[in-house]
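Researcher: Structure prediction, please.
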Amino acid sequence: MTMREDEPLAPAPRARSLMLFVVLVLAVGLAIGYLTAPGYWYLKLAKPGFTPPNWVFAPAWTVLYVLIAIAGWRVCRRDCDGRPMRLWWIQLVLNFFWSPIFFAAHLPGLALADILLMLVAILAFIATAWRQDRLAAVLFLPYAAWVAFATALNAGIYLLN
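Model: Predicted structure follows.
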């Protein structure tokens, strides 16, 4: 079977694996966000004065999930079984558990413990990835900053309620 000149080429294996990382992280993250969207319980909570408007969260997490996926893909290309990749999976699992704990189970204290562990895993990922793939580590810096902010927000909600 021969290929016609006007027939599009299949994406390179690297591009396909990157797309897979991005699609999976985005799909699961956005599905969890949709399924555990803030409801009446969240609306009636006392919140710190630095709480951003609700519309900020979806675009912020969309961008962060893309960065998380790219960083994971880069690290996995080098070593899918190494410490940075294990930390990548740990932070991702903790990330995906936070919304159900906070918004669905209404447990801001347990969510605070989860997000603190997530922040530690993110910082550990940055430190370990830095030696192997500096760009992957740098891609996690906005994520670390956002999760640090979200940790303060979670703590404020926990203390106020």
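Model: Residues 56-160 form one domain.
Researcher: Thanks, that helps.
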